[in-house]
Amino acid sequence: MKIFKLILFTAFISLTISCSKDDDNPAPENNGNIIGVWKGTTVNYTGSTTTTAQGQSITADYVGEAYDVDYTLTFTENPKKVVSDGSYSIELTTTVNGQSTTQNVENLELLSSGDWSINGNTLSITVDNETDDATIVELTNNNLVLNVVETETNTGSGFTVTSTTDVTLSFTKQ
Questions:
Q1: In the predicted model, what is the mean pLDDT of the chain?
Q2: Which residues lie closer than 8 Å to 40 by C-beta, 6 or more apart?
Q3: Cis peptide leading into residue 79 (ω within 30°)
Q4: Helix (H, G, I), strand (E, B), or coil: what is residue 137?
Q5: Which residues of 124-143 are buried (b: 16+ CB within 10 A; e: fewer)?
Q6: DSSP secondary structure code for residue 79 in this structure
Q7: What DSSP element (H or E) covers 7?
Q8: pLDDT digit string (tens) for 30-74?
Q9: Which residues contact 90 (CB under 8 A, 6 or more apart)?
């Protein structure tokens, strides 16, 4: 998604979807209707980036928490469109070899507007012919919680960078 490109620049963070199923865990509460306006309340990141060059690897772990959350997602039914509006900022703490640094990344957009569909507990959003999936953790008449996990590998100039990011986004219906 286009919104996470700035974070990708700062800590090689990316966005994608993960869906895990465990028969011992109860099914998520997904009995609400996604149609309407959803106001973002939280965005939380965890992840790691491993950079490898000439047989040596360095791993950076990171944790991010949103502040100044001021965005909405509006889902329409006919046509099935999602419109993103607003921004948020992240306080991102990165730890490498036991040393931590914290930086603020401000005024991030959540995502670009596009088409949406739901299949089971997977929300798919298509923007510019690229589809990203999110696991619906909770969908009630008042709350929407999405989880996105992405692993991305980039190679170039003798370096291989692999990032795995787990993002949880929470919303309340307006």
A1: 85
A2: 66, 69, 70, 71, 72, 73, 86, 88, 110, 169, 170, 171
A3: yes
A4: strand
A5: ebebeeeebbbbbbbbeeeb
A6: S
A7: helix 5-11
A8: 678 999 999 999 999 999 999 999 999 999 999 999 999 999 999
A9: 7, 43, 45, 64, 65, 66, 67, 104, 105, 108
